[in-house]
Design a protein that fits this description.
mainly alpha
């Protein structure tokens, strides 16, 4: 059984995750309203910054390289 403190920390964690998920969804919708924005083109451009362009995912290092 979880202690009251652990339950509260778990509650806080889930609440913060929920709030961030809402913010991310709002940002996604805002991007979707921009007709010139092409998600696939953005993904491919980020992947070009990768050490391994054959993989189908991006990571934090790829984002850092892209933003430099």
């Amino acid at each position: 059984m979880l202690s009251a403190g652990t339950k509260y920390k778990l509650f806080q964690f889930i609440q913060i995750m929920s709030e961030n998920e809402t913010l991310i969804e709002e940002q996604r919708q805002e991007l979707a309203r921009i007709e010139e924005f092409e998600p696939w083109a953005a993904f491919r451009r980020l992947c070009q910054c990768s050490d391994d362009p054959s993989r189908n995912a991006i990571n934090a290092e790829d984002l850092c390289r892209f933003l430099r």
